Structure to design on (166 residues):
C-alpha cells in the first residue's frame, strides 16, 4: 500500500470523525465563515490540530507504532482469526481415494498420487542407509535439476509465444 493511499485511508478513518472539531472552530451561529476561519488561524500560532494533513500523518504513525508492538505470536493469532477456515474433518481428510465399482481407475488414481508424492522413491531410498554427506549432495543435485528443468520449460514457453506472434 503506497504512503498516499495509507495517508488517505488514515485521514478518512481518523480525521473525518472529528468534523465537529472543525465546525466548532470555523463556524459562527452554525454557518461556515471562511474569512473568519482564515483570520482566526492567522492570529494564533498553527498547531498540529489545525492542519488535517499533519493530523492524519500523526494518526498514521501512531497506528503503525501500535502494529509494531505486537509480538509474532499475537500477529499470527490476529491473522488466523481473520481467516475463519473450517477445521479438517479428520486426520485422513484429503488422503482418501474413493473406491468406485471400477477398481482399475481407483488403483490408477492411487498410483498417480503415490508417484506425485514420491512415496516409491522414498521407500526405495530408505531400504538402505545413506551417509549424511551423500544424501546432502543428492538432494542438492535434485534441487538443481528441478530448477533447471523449470527454467528450460519457461524458455520454451517464451520462444513459442514469440513464434506465435510472428
Amino acid at each position: 500500500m503506497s504512503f498516499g493511499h495509507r495517508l488517505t485511508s488514515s485521514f478518512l478513518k481518523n480525521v473525518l470523525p472529528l468534523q465537529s472539531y472543525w465546525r466548532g472552530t470555523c463556524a459562527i451561529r452554525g454557518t461556515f465563515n471562511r474569512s473568519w476561519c482564515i483570520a482566526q488561524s492567522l492570529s494564533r500560532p498553527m498547531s498540529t490540530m489545525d492542519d488535517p494533513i499533519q493530523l492524519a500523518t500523526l494518526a498514521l504513525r501512531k497506528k503503525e507504532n501500535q502494529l509494531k508492538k505486537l509480538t509474532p505470536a499475537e500477529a499470527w493469532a490476529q491473522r488466523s482469526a481473520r481467516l475463519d477456515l473450517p477445521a479438517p474433518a479428520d486426520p485422513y481428510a484429503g488422503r482418501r481415494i474413493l473406491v468406485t465399482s471400477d477398481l482399475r481407475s481407483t488403483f490408477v488414481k492411487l498410483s498417480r498420487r503415490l508417484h506425485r508424492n514420491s512415496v516409491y522413491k522414498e521407500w526405495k531410498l530408505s531400504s538402505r542407509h545413506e551417509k549424511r554427506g551423500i544424501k546432502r549432495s543428492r538432494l542438492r543435485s535434485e534441487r538443481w535439476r528441478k530448477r533447471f528443468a523449470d527454467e528450460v520449460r519457461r524458455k520454451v514457453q517464451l520462444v513459442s509465444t514469440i513464434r506465435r506472434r510472428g
Observations:
- The first strand starts at residue 27 and ends at 28.
- The two ends are 39 Å apart (CA to CA).
